[in-house]
Amino acid sequence: MAEVVIVPDAATGGALVADEIVRLIAGRPDVVLGLATGSSPLPVYRSLVERLAGRDVSRVRAFALDEYVGLAPDDPQSYRSVIRREVVEPLGLDPERVGVPDGSLTGIEHAGEAYEAELEASGGVDLQLLGIGSDGHIGFNEPGSSFASRTRVKTLTRLTREDNARFFASIDDVPVHCITQGLGTILRARHLVLLAFGEGKAAAVAGAVEGPLTASLPGSAIQLHPHATVVVDEAAASALRFADYYRETWAHKPAWQGL
Ligand code: F6R
């Protein structure tokens, strides 16, 4: 099962994950990172800015999880723009080495396959950051997504569009379709790190970590992964049955194991 780390706040969680990423880059300058958008990974990116200052990150590769379909690439809400603004520019990554699925309408029918080929050619993701939607999605794999799915076009649920309407003028401006790495794609990454903060995520986190393995809660796919870490604050951990056990495990974790 996933290792659950309960932290006092999002900033502490961000620092913990950022330390692990710095350690990876130090060991392998051409590490491949899997990036998520949305609010949950922001504390990681913020912590990385100071930790990576002055270090050589020119060989780091990165791949985003997902993209809206039909937004212009330079639309400020396209994930290509968000990743550039929140990750590539602040961390000084080489934009040529950062992939985002192509959500343009032209050629969309082949964009999933093309992205899978890019991921494959990179040698695969070493550490994949994940958030979780209130309906349990990871990437944009909405309920019902196959555990074997690959990068493809999906329809966003009404709930996800409502959750993400905060970034748009109105819900009608939130695209209906997205292109997302599949659950099967995500499971190929060597280490999954799922971050969730706040009470709104408590039910989804409990379902993902302790619920039955079910396509109805796509985040439960992390239970199939041999190395999955879930970093949550107390509020997001509040529905976990075995929270005390996770605290105990973390307190006694041997230092040599790393995250
Ligand atoms: C974003 C993504 C989504 C988000 C999820 C949670 O690339 O893949 O799964 O991680 O919707 O979003 P936040 O973090 O904004 O609550």
Top-tier CATH class: Alpha Beta
**End-to-end CA span:** 14 Å
Q: What class do helices, strands and sheet pairing give?
A: alpha/beta
Instruction: Let me know the number of strands.
Output: 10
Report the order of strands and helices. Answer: EHEHEEHEHEEHEHEHEH
Strand content: 15-25%
How many domains make up the coordinates? 1
Give the CATH architecture.
3-Layer(aba) Sandwich
Helix content: 25-40%
Molecular structure report:
The mean pLDDT is 97. 34% of the residues lie in helices and 16% in strands. With 259 residues, it is an alpha/beta fold. The strands form two sheets. Strands 1-10-9-6-2-3-5 form a seven-stranded parallel beta sheet, sandwiched between helices. Strands 4-8-7 form a three-stranded antiparallel beta sheet, covered by helices on one side. Helix 2 (42-52) links the parallel strand 2 (32-35) and strand 3 (61-64). The two termini are 14 Å apart. It has a single domain (3-252), classed as 3-Layer(aba) Sandwich (Rossmann fold), CATH 3.40.50.1360. Bound molecules: fructose -6-phosphate (F6R). Fructose -6-phosphate binds at residues 36-40, 65-66, 131-133, 137-140.
